[in-house]
Amino acid sequence: MGILLMLPMLLLAACGNAVKAPESGDTPDSDKAESTGTLERAKEKGSITIGFANENPYAYKDASGELTGEAVEIARVILQRLGINEVKGELTEFDSLIAGLGAKRFDLITAGMFINPDRCQAVLFANPEYSIGEALAVKAGNPLQLTSYEAIAKNADAKVAVMAGAVELDYLRASGVPEEQLVIVPNQDTAIDALKSGRADAMTMTGPALQSRLDSAKEPGIARVMDFEQPIIDGASVRGYGATAFRMEDTAFRDAFNAELEKMKESGELLEILSKFGFTEQELPGDMTAEQLCQ
Length: 295
What we know:
By secondary structure, the chain is α/β, with parallel strands linked by helices.
């Protein structure tokens, strides 16, 4: 997925039947006769097998052993509306998910996988269900009016807390922030402390990670910059988009999935599910499509 999120997540208990691991003898619906599409076979059987990589907050097993996560819960709702009420999970290493889909160990990937042109050569992506970018927190009221990394670079008095070794360090430097304005800290909690104590005027990390820290800290004197402008590095946005992936031949399945996903976006249901896993309006995918991201 390309982004490491250190994120304690709330668990989602609603949205349908529990996901369970395949029982002995279970095989993905795609192993049936090839004359019928994956969606039709799954509807006939009433169940389907998904591939996941146990990565919080996308798809993971909770303390009770149930499979949850933003990708799982979104897929569960959509699959139920397509007539598939039971979802079985197949745990797979992340870098083996695409191979497992091709080998028909499971019938779709619900792991919050980022869409990129290389992966688009191997799998058929639905439209994105979320996006991940950078985020900024400041003192309440944003007294220095910091809404981007460039704004930090332009204000010599502004200091930003960032974790050692984090990709945000590269982004800040590429955006022109000098070393003397960087407050390099060992972890996320120390970044919060630096902002609270005044050693820093801002702190930055990925959106869900930052939101998780703010939710845990419950510090009224600190606020997220909701109009933060994503950094542009080497001419490209650093924002990534995650989606469900299908086999190349399952265009009808992908199209049906996309139709239901669009309804969820329009009704606000997508944000309701995402918010249970630490996502905010800033992590919505907007009008971005898989076709655009695959180019």
